[in-house]
Design brief:
The protein is an alpha/beta fold and 361 residues long. It has helices at residues 21-32, 90-103, 113-118, 126-138, 177-187, 225-234, 253-279, 296-302, 317-323, 330-343, 345-351; strands at 16-18, 37-38, 51-54, 60-64, 67-69, 76-77, 144-150, 167-174, 191-195, 208-214, 236-245, 308-313, 354-360. Strands 1-3-4-5-9-8-7-10-11-13-12 form an eleven-stranded mixed β-sheet. A two-stranded antiparallel sheet has the order 2-6.
């Protein structure tokens, strides 16, 4: 477990080491005596089989099925004065709960529910989508020891596996235990699974040769999105490379123009649903996921490190479902769009839906 040396405590920043057998036995005895807590204040009532501990002995991080629980809230402490309370915001909990309970579970068709809800799974569109996935690898170092995937989710597409083919380990970072369990199932010992917060990575400076963060940053609270990207850059080695795939959403002028009539209809439908719900005494439907998209100018102003812009995919799923149909030469339309993206990746990344932020340290 040489990889332990690159980790740090997310609360204190202290080095971590593996728990010894005698320490585990002592902790489990305290657990039985109700004198062991999670740092959010809940009593610890689960047996510890393996885990990490700070060199100061202050915080313990259990390892369950190969997944290291490195969220501050899940740290284990043996004294009430070490309790720090609940640190996870409601918006982050919303994302965590969605992916644990729905997103990384499969439908009857065998697709992850996340893809079933948010992606275009029609067969004729898959060639275009695969070629867009393949673009990411161009901007990464081809090999190294550690590549970080934040937030990895369940590695829902086989295309994603290629990014770490030349690396010894893929560090899968996520707040979803269900998603990380899928990573472990697919990658085995190659996957170093860290259940943690992207805005507070429990990894020391300059430890990894590459990173990807695919369609994740906009699910982080808007005021912490720059912090998450800065954290990824912090753990990158000199000479390392990384890619963040983002979503401009309503800041994409091309999608705004092409989908304006349909967004207008959807806005009216949404308003009517809320009015009918209010009139009938029903509550509004609860949010499924937190989402906030900043414009390009925000990142240009606030990101402290240089980056280049490229195109991951210039068109959104609603665009594809409205304009691309197999009976109406939809496959040919997507191929034409792909060729245009290839000719001018920066322009299509800026004006289209999904840009890639490309970093090199």
């Amino acid at each position: 477990m040489e990889w332990i040396s690159i980790l740090k405590c997310p609360i204190s920043g202290a080095d971590l080491r593996k728990l010894e057998t005698a320490e585990i036995n002592d902790l489990n005895n305290k657990c039985k005596a109700n004198s062991l807590w999670q740092s959010d204040g809940k009593l610890m009532n689960t047996e510890i089989k393996e885990g990490l501990i700070t060199h100061t002995g202050q915080y313990i991080y259990p390892i369950i099925n190969g997944i290291v629980l490195l969220l501050p809230d899940l740290a284990v402490v043996d004294a009430k004065e070490k309790i720090i309370g609940d640190t996870l915001s409601d918006d982050k909990k919303l994302v965590k709960d969605f992916y644990d309970n729905r997103g990384w579970h499969t439908t009857d068709k065998g697709d992850y529910e996340d893809a079933d809800i948010f992606e275009d799974l029609r067969p004729f569109a898959q060639d275009y989508i695969t070629k867009c996935h393949n673009r990411v690898k161009r901007y990464l170092n081809p090999s190294g020891k550690y590549m970080m995937d934040a937030a990895s989710g369940a590695l829902q597409y086989n295309d994603y596996l290629q990014y770490s083919e030349g690396y010894q380990y893929r560090i899968c970072v996520d707040m979803s235990f269900q998603g990380l369990s899928e990573c472990k199932r697919k990658l085995g010992d190659k996957a170093l699974c860290l259940l943690c917060d992207m805005t507070n990575l429990p990894v020391k400076d300059g430890q990894i040769e590459g990173f990807v963060s695919l369609n994740t940053i906009y699910h982080i609270p808007k005021d912490e999105q720059v912090k998450a990207i800065t954290e990824l850059y912090r753990v990158l080695q000199k000479g390392g490379k990384g890619v963040v795939v983002y979503d401009w959403y309503k800041h994409s002028p091309w999608m705004n123009i092409s989908l304006l009539p349909f967004r207008g209809v959807e806005y009216i439908r949404h308003r009517l649903r809320n009015l009918f719900a209010k009139a009938s005494g029903k509550q509004k439907a609860s949010r499924m996921l937190y989402f906030y998209a900043h414009p390009y100018e925000y990142f240009k102003q606030h990101l402290p490190m240089p980056f280049k812009l490229a195109c991951w995919r210039s068109i959104s799923v609603p665009f594809m479902k409205v304009y691309a149909h197999s009976a109406l030469m939809g496959k040919q339309l997507l191929e034409k769009i792909y060729r245009a993206e290839e000719k001018n990746p920066e322009k299509y990344g800026l004006k289209g839906e999904y840009p890639m932020f490309v970093f090199e340290k």
